[in-house]
Amino acid sequence: MKVLLAHPGTQHAFQLARQLARQGVLSSFWTGLALREEAWWVRWLTASVMIRERLGNRLLSGVPGHLLRLRPWRELSALWALRQGGAALEVFLRRNQAFQASIPSSALRAVDVVIGFDTSSWILAERCRDLGKRFILDQSIAHPLWKKQVFEAVAARYPDWRESLTPPLPEMLAHEAKEHDLAASIVVASQFTQRSLVAHGVPPERVVCNPYGVDLAAFYPRAQPEGERPFRFLFLGTLTARKGVPLLLDVWRRLATRRAELWLVGPASPAVRRLVPDLPGLKVLGKRPHRDLPELIRACDVLVFPSYFEGFGLVVLEAMACGVPVIASDATVGPDIITDGCDGWLMTAGDATRLQSAMEDAMSNPVKTFEMGRLARQRATAYTWEAYGARWQTLLETT
């Protein structure tokens, strides 16, 4: 079997490319910008810690160079447009359109299966249909119409945070509907995403759930509870209303505790940063490189992830692998991998009362919380990138 994989950006596409190459089925990986870590000049370039941090999400290993098909100028042009203040959704729409058109028909004819990603595959899917090629869509986040509904509700609840909620473009809604119609199979990473697709008319038999993985060697637990220090909660992700940050801040204000800390780690726009109040124990640490995340997670006791809308929420799995239990909403992978009250806590998205009670429960018994983290690590060991790749291979052979 020969597979063409196409993604103009990053997300988890690099991991999928690596796994398909390892199984010997990857014919070509088309992407915007990727730097092979095995190349001598990449090793030289990334010897600088600062440069490595800047390019961290573009580093790719495990994929032979002859399988890579890059479109760097289109990606650099998009990044430049964003830096100049361009609207992100419009910039990415133009990039994704040009990227799909740049893949020659000869490359599509040479393979058995084409795998594309949501918001960047509507042209690709049409071309596969016309060529009689099987097209599989990797759906990285829940259905866009569900997103639109959620964003409207969250904006009404937190009007000051409205700017952090960017609804999908109308033309993108039409493009994604085309992707869903033309895909032979749609692969999702969580049951939340699966439910959202089925609720909006996608036949359930065409949706396959394949959860992501985690690097267990990098994300490992600390040996034992730390000594005297405040109990620490961690939020990890972009500081937006979609991620539940204003809800979390409301709950933190109500807890009014001086014996615990809440660390907010992730990028924030200047407008959002002004909305974050000065509260006891609250620390805004900003964006950190991915290589620093395991140490940051291990320095905390509980990850809090009350998101309103996700496709998976990889930080949930990364925290569990670090032996840190998670308070996760039902709009994430949480219900798929967490047993409530055993190796973490579950909440309905937007439920401030449940979020507060879970945080109080965690603080009230740190020994139990640490034990819950140990069980969370055990659960996480089933979710490796190798297992993710093996499930993809089975999917390719049987669907």
Automatic annotation (TrEMBL):
InterPro entries: Glycosyltransferase_grp1
Protein name listed in UniProt: Glycosyltransferase family 4 protein
Source organism (scientific name): Chloracidobacterium validum
